[in-house]
Amino acid sequence: MLKFNQIRVAGRLNGASGQVNGGEFVHVLGTNGSGKSSLLSAIAGLLPIEQGQVWLEQKKLQDYSLPQLAALRCLQEQQQNSAFALTVAEVLYFFSEDKGLPAELDEALELQQFMSKPLNQLSGGEARRVHIARTLLQVWPTIQQGRALVLLDEPNQGLDFKHQHLLFRLLRRLCHTGNVVIVNHHDLNLCQQYADKIWLMQAGQIVISISSLEQISNHDLAAIFSCSIQSAVDATGNKIFQTYLD
């Protein structure tokens, strides 16, 4: 569904290449400044690339009109600010002509309790859930067809443990119907639990692409993240990661 080859943006991306099939949940990890956010922006067509190419559904990204792209892919950026006292319901309605929130989104993001509240009066985590919902609503008809490309930049930032898991469970369900979801974040344990594909980035490149953290040593992970990493297996057989400085 998505392919990009040797895309370059001065100071941000240095020949990043990758491919994603329909139905895959991709997690992008790396240190700050490794190019994760720039990669999502370039894939979305919002960051002009200087070299290389991006294909979406076997069509070059630049061959889509802006309305076509807006219906096919969405991007939630890290920084989401609202200077206006719009209610949550008003914000969501702006991105969807349907006044009702799809049950699947409501169940995962739990927004009903503050639909009538101004967005700029919510906590950081509550506002994050609203922005995730409005991002998904932008392409919801395409999501229902199983053809959407969903790009989320650190969507779990500010969310409590419960809502991190509710969100990632939702995103996995979206992938099960054929959609592609790509997320950036810094949590090895969430990655281990939910990812179908993992991209590890350094210096604007995807240096490692794997399907599980079981395929890489803790030593190599430590080299990627510039800190020490240990892992253990819990009573249910799940691998748990811990990071620390020497």
Describe this structure in words.
The protein has 246 residues and is an alpha/beta fold. The protein has one domain: Rossmann fold, CATH 3.40.50. It has nine helices and twelve strands. The strands form three sheets. A six-stranded mixed β-sheet has the order 6-7-8-3-9-10, with helices on both faces. Strand 11 and strand 12 form a beta hairpin. Helix 3 packs parallel to helix 5 and helix 4 packs antiparallel against helix 7. The longest helix has 16 residues. The radius of gyration is 18 Å and the shape is globular. The model has no long low-confidence stretch (mean pLDDT 92).
- How much beta, percentage-wise? 25-35%
Coarse morphology: globular
CATH class category label: Alpha Beta
Low-confidence regions: none
- CATH homologous superfamily name? P-loop containing nucleotide triphosphate hydrolases
CATH topology call: Rossmann fold
Number of domains: 1
Estimate percent helicity: 25-40%
Task: Assign the structural class, choosing from mainly alpha, mainly beta, alpha/beta, alpha+beta, or little secondary structure.
Answer: alpha/beta
Number of helices: 9
- Termini gap: 42 Å
**Number of distinct beta strands:** 12
CA gyration radius, whole angstroms: 18 Å
Major β-sheet strand ordering: 6-7-8-3-9-10
Average the pLDDT over all residues and give the rounded result: 92
Taken in chain order, the helices and strands follow as: EEEHEEHEHHHHEHEHEEHEE
CATH architecture: 3-Layer(aba) Sandwich
Mind summarizing the main beta sheet?
A: 6 strands, mixed
